[in-house]
Specification:
The complex is a heterodimer.
Chain A lengths: L3 E4 L2 E4 L5 E7 L5 E8 L3 E10 L2 E4 L7 E3 L5 E6 L8 E8 L5 E2 L3 E5 L1
Parallel strand pairs in A: 2-11
Antiparallel strand pairs in A: 1-3, 3-8, 4-5, 4-9, 5-6, 7-8, 9-10, 9-11
Chain B lengths: L2 E3 L4 E5 L4 E3 L2 E3 L6 E7 L6 E7 L6 E3 L2 E6 L4 E6 L8 E8 L8 E3 L3 E6 L1
Parallel strand pairs in B: 2-12
Antiparallel strand pairs in B: 1-4, 3-9, 5-6, 5-10, 7-8, 8-9, 10-11, 10-12
Classes of the chains: A mainly beta, B mainly beta.
Chain lengths: 110, 116
């Protein structure tokens, strides 16, 4: 039982490049979330999903897209990376009680 | 709008001291959930506790205890006899929308340093 895993752990992008972050959970949780964590800002919700095939915007969705084609996976995409997207990205899943987080992805956009 | 305030940005204590981390929240929901998470230097987020708005009983888990007071909209966290391993950033969070599965609104965190 791996819990919530995130791929990759680290990534450096150039401005304008695209990439996809993968989140996978093996706990059969319905709800999944993507957050970003910036110094002094706590965590802010980017997008979330309440079930397979559904997604919704969170507090800071601009510049990101998501997909939940399979219940266990939640993908976060950056179509054209900007330096303002330099952050640590956390994925979480929940059975409807507490949210359980992955280890995070540290993304740097140059 | 929901809001979580952790007024203490950083706290430094010496091992074996007791320390309380403050959390004040704002919400218009009558049903809501409050959480505490720990983020050690390794970076992962560790779930510590969930409390719903109807349960004002204090909770104790080993050296950790939580004091929930609806009258003051506070959900404070106390570590008794602190240890170096307690050094971490601690986040208080509130669900948005009333359900426990709702989106989390996080405070900005309190960095606790426990010195030997």
């Amino acid at each position: 039982n791996a819990g919530v895993t995130q791929t990759p752990k680290f990534r450096v992008l150039k401005t304008g490049q695209s990439m996809t972050l993968l989140c996978a959970q093996d706990m059969n949780h319905e709800y999944m979330y993507w957050y970003r964590q910036d110094p002094g800002m706590g965590l802010r919700l980017i997008h979330y999903s309440v079930g397979e095939g559904t997604t919704a915007k969170g507090e800071v969705p601009d510049g990101y897209n998501v997909s939940r084609l399979k219940k266990q996976n939640f993908l976060l995409g950056l179509e054209s990376a900007a330096p303002s997207q330099t952050s640590v990205y956390f994925c979480a899943s929940s059975p409807g009680t507490a949210q359980f987080f992955g280890p995070g992805t540290r993304l740097t956009v140059l | 709008a929901q809001k979580v305030t952790q007024a203490q940005t950083e706290i430094s204590v010496v091992e074996k001291e007791d320390v309380t981390l403050d959390c004040v929240y704002e919400t218009r929901d009558t049903t809501y959930y409050l959480f505490w998470y720990k983020q050690p230097p390794s970076g992962e987020l560790v779930f510590l506790i969930r409390r719903n708005s109807f349960d004002e009983q204090n909770e104790i888990s080993g050296r950790y205890s939580w004091n929930f007071q609806k009258s003051t909209s506070s959900f404070n966290f106390t570590i008794t006899a602190s240890q170096v391993v307690d050094s971490a950033v601690y986040f208080c969070a509130l669900t948005e929308g009333g359900g426990s599965q709702g989106n989390l609104i996080f405070g900005k965190g309190t960095k606790l340093s426990v010195k030997p």
